[in-house]
Amino acid sequence: MAKYILAIDQGTTSTRTIIFDKSGSIVSSGQKEHEQILPQAGWVEHDPKEIWDNTREVIGQALSKANITRHDIEAVGITNQRETAVVWDKTTGVPVYNAIVWQDTRTQPIVDRLAADGGVERFKQKVGLPLATYFSGTKIVWILENVDGAREKAEAGDLLFGTTDSWVLWNLTGGIDGGVHATDVTNASRTMFMDLETLQWDDEILGIFGVPKSMLPAIKSSSEVYGTAHTSSLLREVPIAGILGDQQAATFGQAAFDQGEAKNTYGTGNFIIFNTGTEIVHSKNGLLTTLGYKIGDQPPHYALEGAIAVTGSLVQWLRDNLGLIGSADEIEALAKTVDDNGGAYFVPAFSGLFAPYWRSDARGALVGLTRFVNKGHIARAALEATAFQTREVIDAVNADSGVPLTELKVDGGMIANNLLMQFQADILGVPVIRPVVAETTALGAAYAAGLAVGFWSSLDDLRANWQEDSRWTPAMDQAESDRLLRNWKKAVTKTLDWVDEDVR
After folding, report:
1. Which residue intervals define the domain Carbohydrate kinase FGGY C-terminal in the entry (predicted)?
2. What are phi and psi of 80, to 5 degrees?
3. I want to staple 58 with a disulfide (CB 3.0 to 4.6 A). Which of 17, 331, 360, 380 is the partner?
4. Using 50, 70 and 90 to split pLDDT, how confident is the model at 42?
């Protein structure tokens, strides 16, 4: 009987399980959304228990749909929303607080406090990241400082921290009954605590943050056997053998293994990763330096990353908060009711601006409005915002690397939107390419797990699986593209300096 790899994709809005065959094709899947908890402006939380319950449910869904059992699964890979922080009691398995999501901005006062001595780039040379609310380190500090008894429990060695990959791994391997507390280098590189060169937790930085080292998971490679599923699981005794943060997983799934290769994921936010090989490249243009992947004992591969906070979630906002559309896939038809944006530009700085600006004081703005603008123009402006933000990050990648991208591989939910993909090619001035298997995040986690257990023998096997589905080439007049980009940059300036002491 054929064997398969199962991938768990613990994302920002849902948890999915996808089962892949040897060709990298999807055999079956299961998916379930979890609640977005928004206690106040700027706060975004998830219930870790709901995430774990959903994970177990979608594993069952995928196995049932494929009519297979654990005996047909060679290994399990995990991918996840990278900076979302969970802190739990290792003796009870109960989280001490909700997961604080990567989009959450409540830790800005902690960022300001840490930046008072050395600025926001205080630790960037060592960890590749600026001080920002985005990363998980300040989220741990907030929990220790604001949850009753958390500091004392942490100092006593009773609390564990993990991004959601660690939370899923720990529970899947037994939880309080011998659960494995580990993460991989890609997720560890998003905490602000891991030294890029040594791939170890940095004691000095932990001391400055005030986070006990005993809370942190062991740092492993992205492709090795971490443990086996607990006997209480539907996957009992199946090895868990791959972990990659979601954007690195998508890069892996796109087979962008070599220096100079890149991909852009269009999801809740957009994330461009440019592979710099075994060289650590420090950005001078607002990008992050991060781990790309590490296979077993092989040298790590590094990457430059452009993180954009709000793209697909802007479409959700138009649906859920404004009722402008009934479902996310309706936005393309609505945007097609007009020929252009009507002069309207939508800068979705809901959580400030990420790359290349890193301005936490920014807030969203819809500018250029006249009586002429209708809901079709607003829908189009929302889609165009994704393409404009991507262009600015690609410009930064080109400046840092010195080797301009000649094409862009894309993945994620929004790439089904043909209008957006054509506009993206027009604004970038290079072809945009969609693969046959668009679920590259889960596929990357599956690849990492499969490599570890010999299901695939080499990266060449994975390269051979990649196939092009669609290609969009630039069709817009250069002068028009330049005009639109100039107006976008003007719109961005209208979002800055909004937040001050009494406006959050």
Report:
1. 263-452
2. -160, 160
3. 17
4. confident
